[in-house]
Structure of Class II aldolase family protein:
Amino acid sequence: MTEAELLVSECRAVVDHAIELADLTPGRTGNLSVRGEPGGDGGSDSGPGNAFAITPTGVPYDAFDPGDVPVVDIGTEGGQLAGEMTPSSEVPMHTAIYRREDVGAIVHTHSPWATALAVANEPLPPIHYMIVAVGKSVPVAEYAPYGTDDLAANIVAAMDEADSTAALIENHGLVVTAPDLPTALENTHHVESLARLYLETKSAGLEPQTLSDEQLETVLEQFESYGQ
Ligand SMILES: [Zn+2]
């Protein structure tokens, strides 16, 4: 079985969730991707999957079917393995992040409040306990042209340094990684709402207070025991 045939459920997930980008980002500027399972059905590979399904470029979020969804190789070629439509123009960023990070899904938006921070080159500090969904802060990745490997390298470097699963992209937008797509989308909403909270507090002439490292560690412990 080919890698593309193994990504049926991932292509379906892209179709099912793409419409959620409409609430997060202007026009068609958002994109999301889901990585295939390691080895897939009956596969013997261990480690992360070698391909991902991603939103197509230039079509409305609700105007494509699973068979249209581009499936892209994470290996050295980086080529399209399946799907009737052309992948998002930011596919190199997704490919490069999957090459560097063991994550299952990526959401990229130009959501306005997060992007306002990105435009100001201002990281999001821990002003609210919900930030631990992505880390203790959201860093800003240094600007590079969209769709380049340099940009992906800057994003991964910023995430690694801040130990965060999200990064603002300087003068560009936001990227969030997660083990699965629903979590990546939920965390994108968290970062966007926290960016708004931060900026609206500042706009009111007030100074946002931040949580201490100790307070954040306590929240992380609470989160780890939540839902069990
Ligand atoms: Zn973008």
About this structure: Residues 181-203 form the longest helix (23 residues). The first strand starts at residue 31 and ends at 35. The chain has a mean pLDDT of 91. Residues 29, 90, 108, 110, 146, 172-173 surround zinc ion (CB under 6 Å).
